Amino acid sequence: MFGLTFEKILLIGIVAVFLLGPERLPHYAAQLARLVKQLRNLANGAKDRMRDEMGPEFDDVDWKKLDPRQYDPRRIIREALTDEDELKAQSATVSRAAPNPDGAYLQRKRAREAATQPAPFDSEAT
Fold it and tell me: What residue spans carry the region label Disordered (predicted)?
């Protein structure tokens, strides 16, 4: 939760003891406990309300599938723009396809061949 480890929480607690002092610490600890209980009740109330409004379908929902941390925008766009079968067909045709005529290797080869031939001569040029 928020990247807090046990050691960090313990360090925050020790700093709080020194900053607040022994007189005010019980009061603030009780306030923190009330805040945690209120947040827990709020979350449980929201879950109960969702269950009431969705009915029996609430238990059928796969909540892990809706976790926003699993989404990769690049993958979503790629899947939306192309079908999986289309991707497989493209990968199969690319591996069997002829070399790209505009590829760097063929361009260099054509340049070497052109360098060995004489330059074109136009008798009508001025």
Answer: 86-126
Q: Check residue 98 and report its DSSP letter.
A: P
pTM: 0.40
Residue 75 to residues 65, 68, 71, 81, 84: CA-CA distances in angstroms?
A: 15, 13, 8, 10, 12
Can you read off the two tokens belonging to residue 48? 């109960």
* Total structural domains within the chain: 1
Helices (H), the chain: 6-54, 73-81, 84-96, 104-116
Tens-digit pLDDT profile for residues 107-125:
777 777 877 777 777 778 7
Whole-number Å distance between alpha carbons of 110 and 106: 6
